Amino acid sequence: MEATLTVVDKPSTDSAHLTGTYTIAGLIGVLPEIHFYQLLHQENIVETRPIEELSKLWLTSQEHFSQSSPHALSSTSITFLPKSLEKREMELRRGRTYTQYFSEYRFCLAPVRQLITPQWYVNLDYLQTLQPIVPAPGQFQQALDFACDEGTSELAEPSMSNVAGSPSLAFWTPLFRDLAFTFSPLLPLKAQRIDSRRFAVTTHVEVELKPNYLHVAKIGSRLLILNGVHRSLAFMQAGWEAIPCLVRDFPNVRSLAEVGFLPNQLGILPDQLLLRDSRAAYLSDYLDPLAAPRFRQRDMDALWQVSCPLQANKQPIPRSA
User: How far apart are CA 235 and CA 143, in angstroms?
Assistant: First the structure.
């Protein structure tokens, strides 16, 4: 099973996003300057300022980020969920999403101002649409459901496509949603004889929108968001100090690839910044216009092209008697 992902300039089908363009806040100063210029092109930023002005903007962001400090908390420890959530937690643990994707995670309350962000920007317009629906501090039941979002988007019917001469299926999704692929345990490989020299082999693969759970990697004393940056920031803006989420321990991590990020992914912040530097990038940094200046970005969708290449492995084995 192979899948290639293409970002396409097409209005998002997700109702929470605006069509056309939206405003983003970008932590450009924590990136190498050349990466910033590459992102202006690859992330489809609508930008008309001259290169000299953009260079000054990058330098200001770099200097302000390095000289500022995030809000400190008296404690950065994670804690268990409140007793009142025991029943709901057990329901989630028994669910298909948890058993399939998050069985190695535990439910916790994490200090929201100590959460480290892995991505260079946030969508401020999307963040604004979350404000009316984010639960108020103390509403733990609603907050847990907000964090464990199964997703409201419906996966549309695929169309036939062609990648490098091979037939494939094309799925459209909102850019922020991922697809998951699993071989169906109920429908394994099936071989059907055509004639004395031929068989038809059928395989069954399940394709689904991956559930949008807020989950965090605990790497030493650092809490790195793996998914759910916008909801975490919405929690923080609503006044939460500790938010419900899923947490997994990742000891001895040397690169972001070890926690699931694609190697050399341009829009992901550097390993050194997130894993080793004393000053990481926190959610509150997005709200500082000097550290995270504003840009306009085109509203994008993603096109997933899915194919199933034939694989055969030939090896010698002893001939049976």
Answer: 9
**C-alpha–C-alpha distance, residues 8 and 40, integer Å:** 15
Nearest residue to 229 via CA among 98, 101, 130: 130
Instruction: List all residues 6 or more positions away from 275 whose beta carbon is below 8 Å from its beta carbon.
Output: 219, 222, 224, 253, 254, 255, 256
User: Which runs of consecutive H residues, i.e. helices, occur in 24-107?
Assistant: 33-42, 51-67, 86-94, 96-101
Mean pLDDT over residues 144-170, rounded? 81
pLDDT per residue over 227-266, tens digit each?
Answer: 999 999 999 999 999 999 999 999 889 899 999 888 878 7
Question: Which residue bears the tokens 């029943």?
Answer: 87
pTM of the model: 0.83
| Closest by Cα among 148, 149, 150, 142 to 82 | 142
- 259: nearest Cα among 210, 231, 219: 219
Tokens at residue 270, please?
């550097």
Burial class (CB in 10 A: 0-12, 13-18, 19+), 15: exposed
Element (H, E) at 305: strand 301-307
Longest dimension (CA), the chain: 79
Backbone angles phi, psi at 158, to 5 degrees: -75, 165
C-alpha distances out from residue 178 to 38, 83, 211, Å = 23, 32, 8
Residue 221, burial from CB neighbour count under 10 angstroms (0-12, 13-18, 19+): exposed
